[in-house]
Amino acid sequence: MTSEPVTPAQSGAAPDLVELTKIVARQRAELDRLRDQAATAAVVERAKGAVMSLTGCPADAAGELLLQRAKAARHTLLEECWITLGTLAPAPGRAGESPGAGTHDSGEAALEQSDAPDDVTAALARLGQALVRVMTPHDLARCLLEHLGPDMGAEAVLIYARRPDGGLGLIGHAGIEDRLAAQWGQVPPLSGMAALDALRAGEPRWLEDFAADERRYLLIGDPPHRWRSRAWLPVVAAGPAEVCIGVLRGRAGVFTPRDRAHLRGATSLCAGRLRTFDPPPERDADATTDAVQALFEALPVAAMLLTPLRAATGETEDFRVEAATAQVGDLLGRTGEEPAGRRLLELRPALAAEPLWQGCLQVLATGKAYEGEPFAHEEVLAGVAELSVYTARVAPLGDALVVSWIRHGSSDRQEQRLADLQRLGNLGWANWNLATREASWSTQVFSLVGRDPAHGPVPLPEVPELALPEDTPALTRAIGELVHGGRPFDVPFRIRTSGGIRHLRLVAEAVADRHGTPVEVHGFVQDMTARRRAELALVESERAILTQHDVLQAERTLASRLQHALLPMSNRPVHLAGLRVEVAYLPAQSGVHVGGDWFSAIELPEGDALLVVGDVAGHGVDAVATMAQLRFTAKGMVITGSSLTGALARLNTLLLHSRDSHATATMVLARYEPRRRRLVWAQAGHPPPLLLRDGEARYLPRPHGMLLGATATPVYQEAECRLDPGDRLILYTDGLVEHPPDSIDRGLEQLAEAVAAPHGDGPASLGPLLARMLPDERRDDVCVVDVRVPGVRDG
Q1: How confident is the model at residue 12, as a pLDDT?
Q2: Distance (Å, whole) CA 131 – CA 379
Q3: Phi-psi domain of 166 (left: phi exceeds 0; alpha: psi -120 through 50; beta: other)
Q4: Is 651:708 a contact under the CB 8 Å cutoff?
Q5: Are 233 and 267 contacting, i.e. CB atoms less than 8 angstroms apart?
Q6: What is the DSSP-derived secondary structure letter of residue 298?
Q7: 3-class secondary structure for 24-92?
Q8: Which residues of 361-399 are buried (b: 16+ CB within 10 A; e: fewer)?
Q9: 65-103 as b/e, with b when 16 or more CB fall inside 10 Å?
């Protein structure tokens, strides 16, 4: 009996959606169970009715007869009922015929007692007859596919049995290739497998929405969308379900109530046949597994046997530990735990990022053994913590891997440490016996001096002959003082090898007898080539930096002088065509280059005022030269009668055909007519002027205009506005509003706010405005032209 869900009124709070979903799911599952029980009871009653009609016996006797038949044939009662009904069902295509009137009438009467659709009843009856001839799980899968394929479009049937480790083994299949069957033959106990989910829940899983199912489950198939809908049904007999049957369809869509009834009935019919089959291979292998585990337990080293667990793509996603020695748990950080039967990454998740994991994958791919680098591991021996050194080795064994760890003894560790020292320090040891004239070198020394070990070590007096002629005297003198006076030395020298000049260092000291006479010399040779090259490169870099700094400083000085000569600054406001104009130029404070920002504010012959700001891309002498070219050319064009747009077009052509074809620039050209108080302006990729009127600041709408030097066919347009008494117009370059990491839009907003802010500084307010807008460290030049139209009282 199911419990009633608690309503919001009863609980005093709105029910949680997840809890409501769980309640509905439980009620639905209980409803399905009750429906299955009712359907089963109906089939039994129908079979009893058929027996009663054929034999004339009472109901109890008919039920007993069915039980005896099922026991004799090793069937379940449900199977025997379906078989009995199947003998009475009309053959396909002959619904109007029967072997005898009595038999036909009795069969029809029995079949009519079921609540299932007539075609499903007939189909299950035929399946029950066919199952009698099934002998293996593969036969069962083929039999199910033959019956379910025409009926509901099934394309494949898979039968999985639960393994002792909680995973699944494929014991029967039909409709899939052997390659795919081998790939999915063993399924580890992973979450996200629909078959395992159905077994654990004891309820079918209907996968009818491929997109949602793909997110929830790992879907069988290559590619997975080969089957767009699937059903996984546990075979429920006595006890928990151990077998799950999967029905895979190529078409999308739901399983109809008729399809579900058909599949539930077919699954119930399979329960008895599955119990009659031989045990699955995994259970037959238990004895072998025990023997392998016993063998590993007897090994004197830490070792384990691994079998790969593959993902749907065929890649190895983990390994199963089939057998292991007792020491393995400690090396994997799971002291006291039994590794056998568990997944490797479950025991040690961090292993996926360690060299041993890659070694296992490498052995699987190449079939060649792998040996890792020695590593330290702390273990407790006789109650004392001790650091031991191990080396892991991986060897192939058929489709499995044998991983073993070799513990190094103290002598092995000392030898390994000495080898590591020589390798890391790029050095090797050398000994010379002065009495016997014998010499011994480590392998590293032969490599450093480029000498074949077959030729043996060089005697101490002949060592200077290895050096370049320039370094021979110092090395000869140091060896002589060591041999005769016992004076140790540390001498650098160079040798010529096939790889070029190598810088070496020989450090040696003498061992004297009881009379103080040197009898043995020992020391080491170290390769200093990389360090020496780094030192030389550092010196060269410092020299180049100093040279470059001098060049840049000279260039800055030249450019700055040129800029001041070309762009004279006025210390006070000027009056042009009835306007009060104040200009400011502030060079960048970071870097050593000057930029190409410029301005012009002149009165034209006819009494108009020409206002210009511009910015050449780049810095240095070239930018200053381009700035001068544009500044004077623009003034000349406008003075000689050229329109603003015509001047911009000609300046663009000038840049395109200049010596530096990559130069670009932005600018604003503005002409003010005092008689009409009319401002006409055009721009080439430049920020728009800012107009302050009656305390409100706004940017003038920009007419169309491409930056200079960008294209051979630019389009420039003019815009105009009327300036009223008291108006203020700000022309500027982008250095005023561009302050990374803030965007230029934010800088434009800040400029408008600063200009519109009330202040009591009077007409000369450009200085405080610049102080408010510019950071302490400027990375770009700033050029500003501040234009004011005198008010009525000013006039």
Answers
A1: 40
A2: 60
A3: left
A4: yes
A5: yes
A6: T
A7: HHHHHHHHHHHHHHHHHHHHHHHHHHHHHHHHCCCHHHHHHHHHHHHHHHCCCHHHHHHHHHHHHCCCC
A8: bebbeeeeebebebeeeeeeeeeeeeebbbbbbbbeeee
A9: bbeebbeeeebbbbbbbbbbbbebbbeeeeeeebeeeee
Q: How far is CA 160 from CA 3, 185, 187, 313, 766, in A?
A: 33, 9, 9, 20, 85
What CA–CA distance (Å, rounded) separates 329 from 337? 6
Single out the residue of 208, 102, 189 nearest to residue 110, CA to CA. 102
Rounded Cα–Cα distance for residues 290 and 294 (Å) = 6
CA-only gyration radius of the chain, Å: 47
First-last CA distance in the chain: 100
For the chain, 795 residues long, the average pLDDT of each consecutive 10-residue run is: 41 42 53 59 69 64 80 72 59 35 31 53 79 80 91 92 85 88 82 86 91 89 90 76 90 91 86 63 49 72 86 80 83 78 82 89 91 74 63 87 78 57 72 87 84 89 90 91 89 86 88 81 84 78 78 66 61 87 80 71 92 88 83 89 93 82 88 94 95 94 93 94 94 91 91 83 69 80 92 59
User: What are the Cα distances from residue 786, in Å, to 611, 718, 781?
Assistant: 10, 21, 17
- Among residues 283, 292, 393, which one has the least CA distance to residue 340? 292
Is the full-model pTM beyond 0.85? no
Give the pair of three-digit tokens for residue 494: 């160079």
- pLDDT at residue 659, rounded to an integer: 61
Tell me the C-alpha distance between 108 and 84, whole Å: 12
SS3 5: coil
Residue with tokens 């027996």: 51
C-alpha dihedral sign at 269, 274, 277, 281: positive
In angstroms, the CA 202 to CA 264 distance is: 13
Burial of 648 (0-12, 13-18, 19+ CB in 10 A): buried
How far lies 247's CA from each of 132, 206, 217, 541, in Å?
A: 21, 10, 15, 73
Token pair for 201: 């829940």
Report helix, strand or coil for 124.
helix
User: Which two structure tokens, joined as six digits, stand for 492?
Assistant: 């650098």
